[in-house]
Write a structure and sequence with these properties.
This is Fibronectin type-III domain-containing protein. Keywords: Glycoprotein, Membrane, Receptor, Signal, Transmembrane, Transmembrane helix. This protein has four helices and 16 strands. Strands 6-5-8-9 form a four-stranded antiparallel β-sheet.
């Protein structure tokens, strides 16, 4: 233990350390070790980039990850050119409490040189997730539903996953794509037909990042990092034109002609229906009204119940009688 403490003290004095992504200097001859950026997928993989690539004889340089919690747990990340990838064993899947010491190892003039990179590397503060997988589309007459999959290891953190969608017409560049972000805690979303041009084919892709809620959480539950790479795109046709709303004009406002035609047809149908039903309505309305036949037998036998004919005849007779009386006078 004393030897380990002495070694760390010597490294600290000779090779001042700074955080990942900032230049550090190795021992001997003032040779620059460069800078390192290490990002993890929050499951089992850590990917590191080295800014100062050296092509020389001897073993390739490497980063050594030593757990500050699990005694005896250390893993090498050996560089191939400027990149190295460390895949942890399944039993050491990354958790929020993980904490590593990272040291850089290389051979200079036949001697191993060790530089301290970061005494407390917190994987949850350097997350770059894998792109969403199994992106699929399901198009109906009104909308298109996009679905994707989440790694089982990330399912407990699904509420902390934030997605961004990009979609465009086929033939356009991704710089022309439309975007939708602030998609939290789901594995599907819906594109309405009105968002898509009828008769066109589209492409969509997705990316994800860890996003800690803004409420009061313990420090060990806060994540930070960057967006994942984009997923493989999925292609799909836009919904049918009729799904865009026949009563809407291109500006999204009701079209007067399209509204008036159905209203006119409805009123015409109602008018025809009333004409057809009017005899039936009259019969049903008058079925309980008593008939006057029994009281006006002579009227019904001579004039078939037409009171107007009888009244006119009576008025005519009375008028002729009055005229004859006047003339006789």
């Amino acid at each position: 233990m004393r030897e380990l403490s002495t070694w760390l003290l010597i490294c600290t004095c000779i090779s001042p350390w700074v955080g990942l992504g900032v230049s550090i200097h190795g021992e001997g001859g003032g040779l620059g070790a460069g800078s390192f950026i290490c990002l993890n997928n929050n499951i089992l993989r850590i990917d590191c980039h080295w800014s100062a690539v050296e092509l020389g004889q001897g073993p390739s340089p490497w980063l050594l990850f030593t757990s500050n919690h699990a005694v005896g747990s250390n893993h090498r990340c050996v560089f191939r050119a400027s990149e190295c990838t460390l895949v942890l064993p399944p039993e050491e899947v990354l958790v929020p409490s993980d904490n590593f010491t990272i040291t850089f190892h290389r051979y200079v003039s036949g001697k191993e040189q060790v530089s301290l990179v970061d005494p407390q590397y917190l994987p949850r503060r350097h997350v770059k997730l894998d792109p969403p997988s199994d992106l699929q589309s399901n198009v109906s007459s009104d909308y298109c539903v996009l679905t994707w999959s989440v790694s089982p290891a990330l399912e407990p953190l699904i509420s902390m996953l934030s997605y961004e969608l990009a979609f465009k017409r086929q033939g356009e560049t991704w710089e022309q794509a439309q975007h939708r972000d602030h998609i939290f805690g789901v594995t599907w979303l819906r594109l309405e037909a009105i968002e898509l041009d009828p008769g066109s084919s589209y492409e969509a892709r997705l990316r994800v990042q860890m996003a800690s809620p803004e409420d009061d959480l313990a420090e060990e539950q806060h994540y930070a990092g960057q967006w994942s790479d984009w997923s493989q795109p999925v292609c799909f046709p836009s919904p049918q034109t009729s799904a865009r709303g026949p009563l809407l004009s291109p500006r999204g406002q009701p079209d007067g002609t399209l509204v008036a035609v159905p209203v006119f047809l409805l009123l015409t149908s109602l008018t025809c229906l009333l004409f057809k039903l009017s005899p039936r309505v009259k019969r049903s309305f008058y079925q309980n009204v008593p008939s006057p036949v029994a009281f006006f037998q002579s009227l019904y036998s001579v004039h078939n119940g037409d009171f107007q004919v009888r009244a006119q005849l009576t008025a005519g007779v009375e008028g002729e009688s009055g005229l004859a009386y006047i003339l006789t006078r």
